[in-house]
Amino acid sequence: MVSDTRLALPLAYPVHVGRGLLGSLGRLVTEHAPNHRYAMIADEAVARHHAETALAGLPRERTALLTVPSGEASKCRDEWARLTDGLLAWGAGRDTTIIALGGGVTGDLAGFVAATLHRGVPLVQVPTSLLAMVDSSVGGKTGIDTKAGKNLVGAFHDPSLVVVDVEVLRTLPEGSRREGLAEMIKHGLIADADHFTALCGHLPALAGAGGHELEVLPALIAESIAIKARVVAEDARESGRRQVLNAGHTIAHAIEHTSEFAVPHGAAVAVGLVVESRLSEMLGLTEVGLAETVALAVRRAGLPDGPPASVSDDALIEATRSDKKAREGRVEYALPAGLGAMDRGPTARWSRPVSDDDVRSALIESRRTAQSPLG
Ligand code: NAD
To answer: Which terminus of the chain has fewer Cβ atoms in its 10 Å neighbourhood, N or C?
Structure first.
């Protein structure tokens, strides 16, 4: 059955969430981002499963499909150059709308192509991973990775339309679905206790086989998108409030870094949320018990709740120094101030510097209490 809800959000562009929407993509695109030509960029796995349906309603002779290999390695200058060269050879001008069909990698890469081609052409985001649905497709951040680090070259470029078809999660591997759940847990923690509690009740079912079929999933995704939308609407260029979206991410980036990116992002975020909640408790910024509430949620989602035994606290602390939130050598944390609320920090920038000793204490306590730490 087809369902389609246009969310009421504080954004300049429409976001549609429903089931079976891929079949209506042509109609939605020609309504909200009409143009002479359309170029769909998809990763190979997603294209195999979904490109045919997505392309069906677009004018065949004026639409191109460009694919990139699946995986983070495609978010690079070489793929950006190959795509822009290909589009220019095809004759793409300002009369071209780019359609990103895929996970966060495709959204960021195709978004950066749209931001830079002829200094910016319209973009439609069609996220196909849970993470991309609730997080990366909304907010306008696009970019690529470089040797120096992830997302270091990019641009803010809002889409003209976001189309979330929950049905496409049918083909998403279960591990990737759990990754997305970590970001949904984060959204509840930072801004909406009711969403956190509602989500928590469904986490075991959402994480299991058939979780994509859950009737409540489109509504939960819509709530999660609304949280992100409210945050980015307050701070489009990431100068303040948007820091709250980095909850759990200082520790998560350290875990990813020390594992040389063997630990998936969502698993690292799950551990980061627990450790940083513990840190917040220890600093007296929130009541004791929050970390255990967050740990319970991540376990219910089948995600790890403690740091990897194979990496020392010192190595993790050292790795936090490469975090993008480090300011003049001091590492900043966006910390929870309770379920659904974040700490404004000493300078009202929604983050605060924390001493290594406090981080070490939080890591030790998190290791002691973890029931399913990272292997
Ligand atoms: P991804 O795009 O690599 O997708 C994960 C895997 O799932 C890929 O192998 C992909 O082929 C596959 N996949 C996606 N949808 C599928 C489907 N429906 N069926 C079958 N397979 C499918 O990774 P991701 O986790 O979606 O996104 C991670 C990226 O997002 C990172 O590069 C990160 O930096 C970026 N990100 C960006 C923002 C932002 O605001 N721009 C926010 C968060 C994350």
So the answer is: N
